[in-house]
Design brief:
This protein has 569 residues and is an alpha/beta fold. It has three domains: 7-19 and 219-459, 3-Layer(aba) Sandwich (Rossmann fold); 50-202, Rossmann fold; 465-566, GMP Synthetase, Chain A, domain 3, CATH 3.30.300. 30% of the residues lie in helices and 24% in strands. It is built from 16 helices and 27 strands. It has a nine-stranded mixed β-sheet, sandwiched between helices. Strand 26 (500-509), helix 15 and strand 27 (539-542) form a beta-alpha-beta unit. The longest helix is centred in the N-terminal third of the chain and has 17 residues, at 52-68. The two termini are 44 Å apart.
Length: 569
C-alpha cells in the first residue's frame, strides 16, 4: 500500500484520511443510533413522523413477519417501491434477518422486473397496488413465493388517508379478491404472532444489497454490496461534512433503488441520527414547496434538478439560510451551471456553494467530493477517507503522470463484492494491482492534478446519462430490433436543456413500412412495455441506412458527430 500515491491528503482540510468503521449490519448501525437518540425523528412522510425508537420497533415487527412467511437468512427479497416508510422498514427488516434486498425501479417494465426476480432468485417482492398487473405479467415465467402489496394510504395519517382514497386511490384498479398476495397490514400482523428467532448475525462483509446497473458492457448486472460498503459510506459522508449534527434534515428525493438515494439520502442519514424527509415523487415545483415547508439542512440531487430550480419563478422566493450542504452527483455538473447555482444560493441566504461528487454504483455511490472550502474549476473533488484514486492507461494498470488523461480507478471500503452471476465481468472490473489493492476500473476517463484533485472528462464505455440515470444504448437497441417494424437501429444521447442528455434512436424500417409520426408512436409504446420509461427514445429519426464501420458494425460515433454538427456544437 505504500506504493499508492495520495497527494490529496494534504488538502483534506482537517478531514481524517482514515476512519474507524462499525462492525455488523446496516440495521445494527441504525439500532445503535436509536439507543443513543431514541426520541429523535428518523423520518417524516407526508406529515407523519416516526422516531428512531419507533422505526426500530417497526423494523423488528416486519422482520418477524418475514420469518413468519418463511423468508430466511441468505434469501433475496425484491423491493419495487418509491421512497416511502414501507420501503425503509422492509429494507432494514430484510437486513435484520440476514437476507438480501434487491432494489427495483417501480416503473420498470414487466420484462425488466421478470429478469430482476429471476436473476436474483427472489423469494418475495414488495410493491405498490398499482403495480399488481405488471407483477403478474412479470411472474408469468417465474414462481415468486410471496407477492407483498402495499398502497400509498397505508402509512398516511387517518385524515390524509381518507383524502387519498377519495382522490388518487379511486383511480387504482382493484386487485381481484382471490389474488395470491399478502397486503402490508396483514403481513405485519403475521409478525405479531412470531415468537421464534428472527435476528441473524450479519458480518460486515456479508452481501446485503443488490443494485442493478449496466456494468462495463451495457448488459444489466446486479451489483452485490455489503453491510460494510454502506456503513463505511455513512461514516465517510459525515467525516467529509463536519457540520453535520444528529437531527439535521435531508430531503430524500433521490430514489432508494439508486445508490445515490439509498446510500446518501437514506442510510447515511439514518446511521448518523439524521431526519429523512421521504418524498415518493416530485417535480421541480413541488420540490420548491418541500424546501419551503421542511427547511432542510441538506439537498442532494442530479444537475437537472438544480437547473430546473433556476427556471422556476417560485424558487425566487425561497430563503435558504437553513442549508448546510448541497450536493450534485449522478452526472457531470457543468462549470456554468455551478456558477449560476452558487450565485442563486448566495442571493437566497445560503452561506454555502454546491459541491460536486463522483462515484459509481460499484462503490455504492459517491467516493469523491468537493471539499467544503476549496473548489477547483472543473474538478469533482478529493477522494473520501480510506479511498484511493489513480489514473491509468486504459485497459492497463500503468499509472499516468499527473495531469495526463486516463481511466479513473478507485479502491476502498465501499467497493462491491462483484457482479451477480457474472464472474467474467467481475474479473474485468475488479482487478488486484501490484500495490495489493483491488481497484474498480470505472470505464471513465479523467485526470488527477498534483494536489490530488480529480477531473472527470468523459466515459470510455458507451453510455447515456439522462436526468442522472444510466441508459445503455445496446439494451435499447436490442428492444428496438425486436419490434415488428424495425430492421436496424442505433441509439445515441443528444443534448437536452433539462435532462442534460436524452435518448435518440435512428431506425431503418423493414421493407413495406413507410416512415410516419404514427409509426414513431407505435414504436415508443412498444418500448414502454419493454424498458423503463427514462430509457424510451425521446426522438426517433428514420433513415434509409445507417453508417457502418469497416468491419460492418453500425458507426454510432458518426451519428454522434452528425448530431453535434447539426446542433452547432
Amino acid at each position: 500500500m505504500s506504493t499508492v500515491k495520495t497527494p490529496w491528503i494534504k488538502n483534506l482540510e482537517g478531514i481524517p484520511p482514515t476512519l474507524e468503521y462499525q462492525e455488523g449490519s446496516m440495521f445494527d448501525a441504525v439500532s445503535r443510533i436509536a439507543e443513543e437518540f431514541p426520541a429523535y425523528r428518523a423520518y417524516d412522510y407526508m406529515g407523519r413522523n416516526r422516531t428512531y425508537a419507533d422505526l426500530v420497533e417497526d423494523i423488528r415487527r416486519c422482520a418477524k413477519a418475514l420469518r413468519a412467511i418463511g423468508v430466511k437468512k441468505g434469501d433475496r427479497v425484491s423491493i419495487c417501491m418509491p421512497n416511502m416508510p414501507q420501503t425503509v422498514v422492509m429494507f432494514y427488516a430484510v437486513n435484520l434477518i440476514g437476507a438480501v434486498s434487491n432494489m427495483i425501479h417501480p416503473l420498470s417494465s414487466a420484462d425488466e422486473i421478470s429478469f430482476y426476480l429471476s436473476d436474483t432468485q427472489s423469494v418475495a417482492c414488495l410493491t405498490m397496488d398499482f403495480n399488481y398487473d405488471k407483477l403478474m405479467t412479470a411472474c408469468a415465467n417465474y414462481h415468486l413465493q410471496h407477492l407483498l402489496i402495499t398502497g400509498a394510504g397505508d402509512e398516511l395519517t387517518p385524515l390524509k388517508r381518507m383524502g387519498y382514497q377519495l382522490t388518487q386511490g379511486r383511480k387504482i384498479k382493484k386487485i381481484p379478491a382471490d389474488a395470491d398476495i399478502i397486503y402490508w397490514k396483514d403481513l405485519l400482523k403475521k409478525g405479531d404472532g412470531w415468537d421464534g428467532d428472527y435476528a441473524a448475525e450479519c458480518r460486515s462483509d456479508a452481501a446485503a444489497v443488490i443494485l442493478y446497473s449496466g456494468g462495463t458492457t451495457g448488459r444489466m448486472k446486479g451489483i452485490i454490496l455489503t453491510n460494510k460498503n454502506f456503513n463505511a459510506l455513512g461514516a465517510q459522508i459525515v467525516a467529509t461534512n463536519p457540520m453535520f449534527r444528529p437531527g439535521d434534515k435531508m430531503l430524500a428525493v433521490m430514489p432508494m433503488f439508486h445508490g445515490f438515494g439509498l446510500g446518501v439520502g437514506i442510510h447515511s442519514m439514518l446511521a448518523n441520527g439524521g431526519v429523512c424527509i421521504l418524498i415518493p415523487r416530485f417535480n421541480a415545483e413541488s420540490y420548491v414547496a418541500l424546501i419551503k415547508k421542511y427547511r432542510p439542512n441538506y439537498m442532494a440531487g442530479v444537475p437537472t434538478l438544480y437547473e430546473a430550480l433556476l427556471r422556476i419563478p417560485s424558487a425566487d422566493k425561497l430563503e435558504l439560510s437553513c442549508l448546510k450542504g448541497v450536493f450534485s452527483g449522478g452526472d457531470s455538473l457543468s462549470v456554468e451551471l455551478k456558477k449560476r447555482f452558487d450565485k442563486y444560493l448566495g442571493e437566497h441566504g445560503a452561506p454555502i456553494m454546491i459541491r460536486e461528487g463522483y462515484g459509481t454504483t460499484e462503490c455504492v455511490t459517491a467516493s469523491c467530493l468537493t471539499p467544503v472550502n476549496t473548489y477547483r474549476e472543473g474538478s469533482i473533488g478529493l477522494p473520501f477517507p480510506d479511498t484511493y484514486y489513480k489514473i491509468v492507461e486504459p485497459n492497463t494498470e500503468n499509472e499516468m503522470p499527473y495531469g495526463e488523461e486516463g481511466e479513473i480507478c478507485l479502491a476502498g471500503p465501499t467497493v462491491m463484492k462483484g457482479y451477480l452471476n457474472c464472474p467474467e465481468e467481475t474479473a474485468a472490473t475488479l482487478r488486484k494491482h501490484a500495490d495489493g489493492l483491488t481497484w474498480v476500473h470505472t470505464g471513465d476517463l479523467g485526470t488527477m492534478d498534483e494536489d490530488g484533485f480529480i477531473y472527470f472528462r468523459q466515459r470510455i464505455k458507451r453510455m447515456i446519462v439522462t436526468s442522472g440515470y444510466n441508459v445503455y444504448p445496446t439494451l435499447v437497441e436490442n428492444v428496438l430490433d425486436g419490434n415488428e417494424y424495425v430492421h436496424l437501429s442505433c441509439v445515441i444521447g443528444v443534448p437536452d436543456p433539462y435532462k442534460i442528455q436524452k435518448v435518440k434512436a435512428f431506425i431503418v424500417l423493414k421493407p413495406g413500412f413507410e416512415p410516419s409520426d404514427e409509426l414513431k408512436e407505435k414504436i415508443r409504446n412498444y418500448c414502454k412495455e419493454k424498458i423503463v420509461r427514462y430509457a424510451v427514445p425521446s426522438e426517433i429519426e428514420f433513415r434509409d441506412e445507417l453508417p457502418k464501420t469497416l468491419v460492418g458494425k453500425v458507426a454510432y460515433r458518426v451519428l454522434e458527430e452528425e448530431e453535434a454538427a447539426r446542433r452547432g456544437e
